[in-house]
Amino acid sequence: MKAVALTHYLPVEDPEAFLDVDLPTPAPLDQDLLVAVKAVSVNPVDTKIRGPKEQVEDPPRVLGFDASGVVEAVGPEVTLFKPGDEVYYAGDITRAGSNAEFQRVDERIVGHKPTTLSFAEAAALPLTTITAYEAFFERLGIDRDGADKGQSLLIIGAGGGVGSIGIQLAKAAGLEVIATASRDATTRWVKELGADHVVNHREPMVEQVRALGFEHVDHIAIFNDMRHWDAAVELIRPQGGIVSIDDATLPMPMAGMKTKAASLHWEFMFTRAMFKTPDMIEQHRLLSYVAGEVDAGRIRTTLNTVLSPINAENMRKAHALIETGTAKGKVVLETFV
């Protein structure tokens, strides 16, 4: 099968950063699906893993953590899917990735693709959807079905992939969304997706949020980086909650959190698959729920840029775009040729 892989971890501008290779087609085992991949998207986790380091891969390593495609074959214990089903999923960081013509993936982390979306549109959604859904409804405990209607949510870094779907999920749950964006293009984007208010995270946020009439906010999601930790602690309401997807490499003073009896949560959407947690199937269920919301017209794809075909050259272009830190929505590659 054709695949885009790497043997060395190199800067994205290096022509050897990705290679077009031929690899054996895997066979599905146990609860695995073998998916014929039609489209993939690129996320910041891809660029972090590909970043320069000494390690050498032999055989070549296939990255990729978002895909849509068609079930080619199923393992003997599969019960949720059959060959010919159209699917979308974010995969498992411990297994070979989606940047290949065929991928083996556990059915418990796969959803039926929204019928109203193309493969490219669907591939933009899984990883960011799972991340935002788990962050809001599982980590912060917000009610998905509207019991917390009217509560406030500050999404820091709302213009990226996670924030773009997060705004929509939060609005569907009835929350008042304060989104942060730092450029005119991303400001327009988050407003288009439904944000009620927009503030600039490159300027003092506490003053901006309070100028909107919020002394504190009920929930905060940090979807870019922990530079905004002090502002988040200042803004969170007593007994509120903050969720982050960033690495904890910067100082995070906790005195303010203790005084407010506020909670801190980490979201990492690969946890369930990595550790084969007993509730692993929840990712199948949430992807199926979101597919229904998309088909009902309540959630839209966050696709913004499409490159074709899926090859090493376009993969380098996609990684370079993500590494700028200015991409809005999602970057997708489609079709092996």
TrEMBL record:
TM regions (residue ranges): none
Domain of life: Bacteria
One GO location term (cellular component): cytoplasm
Subcellular localization: Cytoplasm
Keyword check for Zinc: yes
Quaternary structure and partners: Homotetramer.
Name listed for the protein in its UniProt record: Zinc-type alcohol dehydrogenase-like protein
Origin species: Vreelandella subglaciescola
